[in-house]
Amino acid sequence: MKQELKLRKDIPEELTWNLSLIYATEEAMYQDAEKVKNLCDRMVHEYKGKLDTPQRINACLDDFREVNRLLVLVVHYCDLAVSVDYYDTHNQERNEQIASMTAEIMSRLSFIDNEIAEQEDAVIREAMALSAENRHYLENILRTKPHLLHPETERALAALSRTIEAPYQIYNMAKLADMKFDSFTADGKEYPLGYTLFEDNYEYEENTAVRRSAFAAFSAKIRQYENVTAAAYNTQVQTEKTLATLRGFDSVFDSLLFGQKVTRELYDRQIDLITEKLALHMRRYARLLKKIHKLDRMTFADLKIAVDPEYDPKVTIEESRAYIEKGLAILGEDYVAMIQEAYRDRWIDFAQNQGKSTGGFCASPYGKNSFILLSWNERMSDVFTLAHELGHAGHFKSCNGSQSIFDTDVSTYFVEAPSTMNELLMAHYLLKTNPDPRFRRWVLSCMIGNTYYHNFVTHLMEAAYQRKVYQIVDAGGSVNAETLTRLMKETLQSFWGEDVEISDDAAYTWMRQPHYYMGLYSYTYSAGLTVATQVCKRIEKEGQCAVDDWKKVLAAGSTLDPIGLAKLAGIDITTDAPLLDTIAYIGEIIDEIEQLTDSL
Description:
Elements: H1 26-47, H2 54-83, H3 89-108, H4 111-117, H5 121-130, H6 132-144, H7 151-159, H8 161-164, H9 166-178, E1 184-186, E2 189-191, H10 195-200, H11 208-223, H12 226-246, H13 252-260, H14 264-292, H15 317-327, H16 333-344, E3 348-349, E4 361-363, E5 371-373, H17 380-402, H18 412-415, H19 417-433, H20 437-474, H21 481-496, H22 504-507, H23 524-542, H24 544-556, H25 562-568, H26 577-599
Parallel strand pairs: 3-5
Antiparallel strand pairs: 1-2, 4-5
Helix pairs in contact: 1-2, 1-3, 2-3, 2-5, 3-7, 5-6, 9-12, 12-13, 14-20, 14-26, 15-16, 15-17, 15-19, 17-19, 17-24, 19-20, 19-23, 20-21, 20-23, 20-26, 23-24, 23-26
């Protein structure tokens, strides 16, 4: 039986990440915090009201890069500590202190963009010509000129950043600190329950009674928090709409996509084509799962079960290292060396403990190594998750080492391409290691059940639902728990049709996704995986030259927009061809899984 999760203090050190790689001590972090405050004071004194020549503009931006470098380290050190234990009040208080300091500093320095934007374009372009490190930052100021507000308004907005970001904080506190789960019963046995236990264990549970009972109990608990969660989310989207209007955007979509440097056409295409074209393939996959597991009916709670659970091997952390090193060796010796360093120097937090953030992420503070959060369950799916997060680590190791800190803010439209690429490379490696038909079916089902389901279905459905929310907000409306539940249920029913039973419990999955507090992020998983699929096919066909192109992409950072990055990788995303080909490829994998199932 699954055990209740431990408290953070009871977790073995080797399962945790090592934040001393950022600062050896808390005192060292506070010393950098003082440095950045002093640097801010000097910058206000030396530059405010004086940014009228290319030379002074660049001198100011040189100092501003250092402000950003120090803040990135200080903020990550404090925020990452909270993410693994929302019960630790000392870390919570320290994080709030640093967040308030950051908001104050950015408020005081908000004059920089405004004063530069007030200069003639010729002056800004001359400054661009004088500094490669600052060129793209200045280019972005030219781009955002029409949307900058009065300097005092910008200062006020920067000072209010913690308030503006409060909905996400409220969501996380409700989900990770306040929400306590009771145990549930299935087949006469009692089982412990928690957010991580459900999402990382019970959703994949082979025993149907346990899996469905866990889903029912989990849904009943999160439903108790539906109103506070809906209120937090409505505040988030209303704030985004207000800011979009203040900045002169026609819609909240235009505002949120502006930062991603993509058009509404690319955004809508991703949602519309997948919803229309992929649904038929995934319904076949759902029917196959129902047939294999001899289910009485196919419910939403059954969609993540494995095609062949008995074949799904347990994988230790050390074994995962061997898998990933070999699977990603095609990316070169330097990439493998990074993987080895990640394991050796504790970049990765494997622990399962109470109060820890759910899911997985990779944070890559400029000038330091990456930090990866996940919860290890000894499944091959964890290997794919870790390969995914190491994709982010490899990406930012490359671009952080090649670019100015101003040129590492990669568009979210593209940022999931390197991560999902690693999942595909892992799968292709595994397919080459064993000709056994059952093994091949297992690997292909990992691709569908993990990589493509997660990115092309789970996140895509969230994106389709999210688009409906923003359409309501754009029209002047607001949303509540009842509306959000209805929208999610309609979205799921539209995709799965009659092949999957979508219950009221399934509709409450809108409460589970933190990406809703990050703008239009959910859809970018499918966008990134579309690019990754096409590049992976190139690598399979062309070999080293395609790998070399991909490495150039990783190093480019944000010096190119998503269209430019894809073009550098040999992919044209201005047409729908890459997406349609990727959807067809998913269908072909499902075809083969069906054929292998019939032959076994």
